[in-house]
Amino acid sequence: MITTDFHFEGQTAVYRGKVRDVYTIKNDLLVMVATDRISAFDVVLPQSIPYKGQILNQIAAKFLDATADIVPNWKLSIPDPMVTVGLRCDSFPVEMIVRGYLCGTAWRTYKSGVRHICGVKIPDSMRENQKFQTPIITPTTKAEQGQHDQDISKEEIIIQGLVSADDYALLEKYSLALFERGTKIAESRGLILVDTKYEFGKRDGKIYLIDEIHTPDSSRYFYKDGYAERLEKDEPQRQLSKEFVRQWLMESGFQGGAGQIIPEMTDEIVQNISERYIELYENITGEKFVKENIENLSERIETNVKDFLKIYLHQKR
C-alpha cells in the first residue's frame, strides 16, 4: 500500500508524512498507518516496498512495549498489522538522534573535517564505524514535508525556545535510557544498535515517547559478529538499516539534490529491499516474520480500525 484515503468516525484531520499517514480522531487519538512507502535523503521514492509497513509497525510496537517502564508512550492498540492507534500529543519540534558509533551522515560530516556536530566535540583520528566512548546526542529540527531536517545544538534549541531547559534535560535522560535498553536487546540478538532517533510529545503536562522506535527506518544496526575485524581492516560493516538504500542511491548519483533524478527501482531492487527489511525483523525480534494477506488491504485496515474505534469511542461516552 502506497497511499491511503480513509474516513473514520470522529476524524478531524489527516497528515501524510514521508512513510506514514496519520488520522486524527476527535483531536484526541491518532490512527497511524504505516504504508509501504520508502524515503531516503528526505525524498519519497516512487516504488513501494512489500510488507515494509507491517514490519515497521510491528517492530515499533514490540519496542514501545519493551520500554514503557522507562518513559510513557503514546501507543494504545494495534488494531491492524499496519496500524497503531494512540494518544495525540503536542510534539516537540526536534528529533533526538542518539549515536553510539561514528557512521552515516555523521561520518560524512566528520570526514569533511568538521569536529563539532550539533555542538558535540568529536575526537580526532576516529575511524568510520568506530564506537564513541559514550553515546552522543546530535538533535535535529523536525522539518516540514519536502524539506530537510537541520542539525541543531542543545544550546540553540533552548535559546530559540523550541524546548525548555527542564524538558530538554528529560528528553536527554529518556533518550539515553532508551538507547541503552535498545542496545541490550540488540546485543542479545547478535546485533549492535549503532544509532537511532526518538521523538517526544507532551500531553496534560506529561512527556510521552511518540512515533516509531528502533525500526530500520529510524535506526541502524550492525551485526556484532565480525565487527571488530572489519573495523580493524577499514572494511564496511554488515548492517541492517536503510543505509544500503542510501548507498545505492549515491552510487547512482542521487542524494536528494536539486535537479537530481531518482534512479529506476527495478523489481529486483524492490524485492531486495523488502527481503532486507524482513531480515532485520527476524534478527531483532528473534521471531519468524509472518506475511499478512495483502489482498484487499485498504478494506482490511478500514474494517479493523473502525471496529476498534467503535468500541473505544463508545467506552469514552
Written overview of the protein:
The chain is an alpha+beta fold. The chain is built from eight helices and 17 strands. The strands form four sheets. Strands 8, 9, 12, 13, 14, 15, 16 and 17 form an eight-stranded antiparallel sheet that branches. Helix 1 (52-66) runs parallel beside helix 7. The two termini are 33 Å apart. The model has no long low-confidence stretch (mean pLDDT 92).
Topology:
Layout: E1 11-16, E2 20-25, E3 29-34, E4 39-40, E5 43-44, H1 52-66, E6 75-80, E7 83-87, E8 90-91, E9 94-101, H2 104-111, E10 116-117, E11 120-121, E12 131-137, E13 140-141, H3 154-159, H4 165-188, E14 191-203, E15 206-210, E16 219-223, H5 227-232, E17 239-240, H6 243-251, H7 267-285, H8 297-316
Helix pairs in contact: 1-7
Sum up the structure in keywords:
17 strands; eight-stranded antiparallel β-sheet; five-stranded antiparallel β-sheet; globular; 26% strand; alpha+beta; single chain; 317 residues
Q: Spell the H/E element sequence.
A: EEEEEHEEEEHEEEEHHEEEHEHHH
Radius of gyration from CA coordinates: 20 Å
Strand content: 25-35%
Count of helix runs: 8
Question: CA-to-CA gap between the ends?
Answer: 33 Å
User: What structural class do the secondary elements suggest?
Assistant: alpha+beta
Number of E strands: 17
Low-confidence stretches: none
Question: Overall pLDDT, averaged?
Answer: 92
- Give the proportion of residues in helices: 25-40%
Largest sheet: 8 strands, antiparallel
Question: What is the general shape?
Answer: globular
